[in-house]
Amino acid sequence: MKQLIEKIKDIDGKFTVFINDIKFKGKRSVNWKDVKDYLKTYVGKFYETAESKEVIYIGSDLPDEYTGSNYTYKLKGTVAKAKANAAQGIKEMIEIATNKKTRANDKEKHKKDAKFGWYKYDSRFALPVYDGDQLVRYNVFNASLIIRHDENGKRYLYDIIDIKKRNEQPLT
User: Which domain holds residue 114?
Assistant: First the structure.
């Protein structure tokens, strides 16, 4: 039986998180309240990036920011559903995160919660596409994990943004 979430390395040595279950479905729009409730199950947990060995915590602000950010409000269609379902693979997306970039905090409202700045990591995930009950391919998405560096010295996942559909992977 196929695992619901798998980290798979491609021929270039890059990992992609394959999320083999579409938990958040809908013809017209995403029920962000359901996503928010799901994200609350992560609060208090922490995960380590394989590349830099940094510990990333999941704080109580993640469910609100992830589902209610300006970025999320602007999402439509496939990318909105991709972000909703990416919530299932947060642990694995943190573990495979690469290409860390730093940015100083420049907003007064984040004076405490991002006192030591922001980090942006690259990550990838894939979601299945079905024709009826038949799995036909995976849509692969690139995404950026936004991490805030709190005044307590810990790093917290703040949001997942810049989600872009990369290509379609036919089944082999």
Answer: 5-170
